Fold:
Amino acid sequence: MSDHLTVVDHPLVQHKLTLMRDKATSTAGFRRLLHEITQLLGYEITRELPLTETTIETPMETMQSPILAGKKLALVSILRAGNGMLDGVLDLVPSARVGFVGLYRDEETLQPVQYYFKAPKELGDRMVIAVDPMLATGNSSVAAIDLLKEAGATNIRFLCLLATPEGVARMKEAHPDVPIVTASLDRELNEKGYIMPGLGDAGDRMFGTK
Ligand code: URA
Structure:
C-alpha cells in the first residue's frame, strides 16, 4: 500500500456510514453497521497480504494455487471502541492473532493514558492491523503505534471509520510508514476533540453507554 491515506468510496461503505452517522440509529443498529462496514474496509486493508502457492487436488486435476504466506496477521484493538471493529476483520481472517491496547483520552488534555497492553508474539514477523473507529486528534493512535513498534512491529496498518485532517497529519508526521484506511476524511476536529460532522462518541454509540 503506497498511499498514506486511502478513503474507501465504495457505495456500500458510504451508505452504511450515513446510517451510522444518523443519531436516530439505535445502539444495536450502529453495532451491526460497524461490523458490516469493517468487513468492507477490511477487504481493502488486507489487499496486500503476501501470497505463496500450494499444491492441491481439485476433483479434476492437480494445481498450484495461491494461499496466504507467512505468519498469521495480528489485529490490535485500541480499547474500547476498537473492539467494535475486531469481529468484522476476524470474519475475513479468522486465524488472525489478536492484541489489545488500552488507552483512554484525558478529556482535559486530550492526551492518551495507557492502562493495558497485550500483543501477540513475534509481532515483527506479522502484518499488524490496528483498529480504532475514530482517528481524531491522532494522539491515541500515535501512542498505540508507538507501543506496537516498541513491541517489535515493523509492518503496521491503521484501520478506522472516520479520520480528520489533523489526525492524519499527526499520524503522517509520527508514523509515515503506517498506511491509513478509512471510510471518510471528515471536515475537522472541534474544540473538544470531537470529529465534525462525525457521529458522536463511537464507544458510547456502540455500547449504549450514554
Ligand atoms: N472519539 C470519538 O468517539 N468521537 C469523536 O468524535 C472523537 C473521538
